[in-house]
Design brief:
The protein has 368 residues and is α+β, with helices and mostly antiparallel strands. It has ten helices and 16 strands.
């Protein structure tokens, strides 16, 4: 699987006249090699050479054993360096050729690795390759789909448990800590976020949990992300502690209809922006357009936010195997917000929804 991914990127490198791709991000490292590590202050990079069957993995000594055990590529060149050595010297040795070469780098690469090479080697031209890398990652293979299904399965359990624990008197932070611990118990490898937003805080889509205590009548937005074997699930439900007001119910139903209309547009070859337009038109026609302040969704995979981005203006066509969120919302400042978020996989026939939970503002409807 990983060998095939390297072959595919080599074909793209040949088309773009790129001699070497320098992978430094954890998601792309994992995608192409099966090994991942966060480099922090020490350089970790995977060099994919075009035109020859060569892959070099450069790691600090302390990562040598892990890299050797976890890298799934055949016949890769493992180069390790001690803390007394400068990894830039290793890169210089590999990249120093008499002819001009083009090195593909990710836009997230730390400048401290590129700048010394720019000063030392005049034969290198740099090119951003994020588009090439995402063009491979945007459609998930069957192995990835199965992992994403498992990540969503874990998150379904976690979100259900979170909803059942919404009650008067518990603080956002306390509920967030319970969610994190429960997710790890259910098999998540990591919980990158567990947003608990109650009352006026629910009108702020990315508000981190605070010490605010949930009161009767509060809307509570629960947005939970879990990571499993490198892949993410990102789900949201909105409920009310106690009995909702008519306004809360009305706005919830508008968001619910917007999401359903967006889901109904999904099938292979449909333009991505059509999903956003379906949700946005529904909310705008109800008079709340100015309160829908973000895109309708984003891709999920090795990153919690990755292409395709479900927004107006994205005229790319949906392909079977794309995986993304559908999450319209309405946020009324200083009052409350509502968001409903599912994870879906595009199929030839339409889509598979990985979110197996009710969509209700009433907590009792989640007593499965």
């Amino acid at each position: 699987m990983h060998q095939d991914r390297v072959k595919r990127i080599r074909r793209l490198m040949d088309e773009e006249d790129i001699d070497i791709v320098m992978i430094t991000s954890e998601p792309n490292m994992l995608y192409f090699s099966g090994y991942s590590a966060i480099s922090l202050e020490r350089l970790i990079t995977l060099l994919i050479h075009g035109g020859e069957d060569r892959v070099s993995l450069i790691v600090p000594k302390l990562e040598e054993k892990r890299a050797e055990e976890n890298c799934k590529l055949r016949d890769f060149e493992l180069i390790s360096y001690s803390d007394s050595e400068n990894p830039i010297d290793i890169l210089e040795n590999i990249l120093s050729r008499s002819r001009q070469i083009t090195v593909g780098v990710e836009e997230t690469i730390q400048f401290k690795y590129v700048y010394p090479l720019m000063r030392r080697l005049e034969n290198i031209k740099y090119s951003l390759v994020d588009g090439l890398l995402y063009s491979l990652r945007i459609v998930k293979d069957m192995v990835e789909v199965e992992i994403l299904k498992k990540a969503a399965e874990i998150n379904n359990q976690v979100l259900l448990e979170a909803i059942k624990n919404v009650r008067e008197g518990i603080s956002e932070k306390k509920l967030m800590m319970y969610i994190r611990n429960y997710a790890l118990e259910m098999g998540a490898d990591e919980v990158p976020f567990a947003l608990v937003q109650s009352g006026v805080n629910s009108a702020l889509p990315h508000q981190e949990p605070t010490g605010r205590v949930i009161s009767k009548g509060d809307i509570v937005v629960l947005d939970i992300g879990v990571r499993y074997q490198g892949y993410y699930s990102d789900l949201t439900r909105t409920v009310v502690c106690g009995s909702p007001s008519k306004e809360q119910v009305d706005i919830f139903n508008i968001v619910l209809n917007a999401q359903q209309n967006a889901l109904d547009t999904i099938k292979e070859d449909v333009k991505v922006e059509n999903i956003d337009l379906a949700a946005r038109t529904t909310i705008e026609s109800s008079g709340y357009g100015e309160y829908f302040i973000h895109r309708t969704g984003h891709g999920i995979g090795l990153e919690v936010h990755e292409p395709p981005f479900i927004k107006t203006g994205n005229k790319d066509s949906l392909k079977s195997g794309m995986v993304f969120t559908v999450e319209p919302g309405i946020y009324i400042p200083n009052q409350f917000g509502v968001r409903i978020e599912d994870n879906i996989i595009v199929t030839r026939e339409g889509y598979i929804n990985l979110t197996k939970l009710p969509k209700s503002i009433y907590i009792e409807d989640y007593e499965l």
